[in-house]
Amino acid sequence: MTRQELIQQIKQKRSFLCVGLDTDPKKMPQCVFDLHDPIFEFNKAIIDATAPYCVAYKPNLAFYEAYGLKGMEAFVKTCDYLKEKHPHHFIIADAKRGDIGNTSQMYARTFFEEYDIDALTVAPYMGEDSVTPFLQYEGKWVILLALTSNKGSHDFQLTEDAQGERLFEKVLKKSQQWGTTENMMYVVGATQGQMFEDIRRVAPDHFLLVPGVGAQGGSLQEVCKYGMTKDCGLLVNSSRGIIYTCNDDHFAEVAGNKARELQQEMAAELDRADI
Known about the structure:
The chain is an alpha/beta fold. The protein has helices at 3-13, 38-50, 62-65, 68-85, 101-114, 128-131, 153-156, 167-175, 195-202, 220-227, 240-243, 251-272; strands at 17-21, 56-59, 90-97, 119-122, 141-147, 184-188, 208-210, 234-238. The two termini are 20 Å apart.
């Protein structure tokens, strides 16, 4: 999916919602365990219920790898189902890969050739040669970790050099030499609030993938106030706040209602920004 296609979907759906598929059998309703592939069937029901209200899905690889071959089969089936039944949705593999060049080449081949995913989260710690292999695929995206929403983000990301430049700012500046607004996004946690102003000073036009709205306490309105651009420039992710809002036979319906609530809030923000 190109940048312009993504922007078009945002405008058509009046939504910049990304639904995170952090699918944990320990939190799934009992009714799905009567089915052949519970993880996939849970995802399928969530997708069908939320698809009208979102533009992207983000399966988190840790939740599939934890269940071995069966988990990875469910991941592949989920992605194939999205591509077949909901082809206009942006698919992000949240895997946070990144290693020396030849290893990153194989990771890129895995996700962009074998699985044919639109985007992959990548860790930038090892520098240029660990990131650029992912940028060689036309129409595919790198989503680089920049300023995350976890408590430990302060351990490194906010540390300053002698000139007062923080590490996340250095990552933003340097990485723009590798990719463009057409193939690189950044992860910025919703709980960082007004820090979005600092992000936008360094990366004014890049799309941002924003986790942390909902269960982690991030404010959608604050994210939009400081982070939205003339093209929206945001994909706001909600995982637990949507997919685990109900634990009975009505889980998908309730998830759809929650996604619709967020979509309506997002539509208001897009209207306010005249997008």
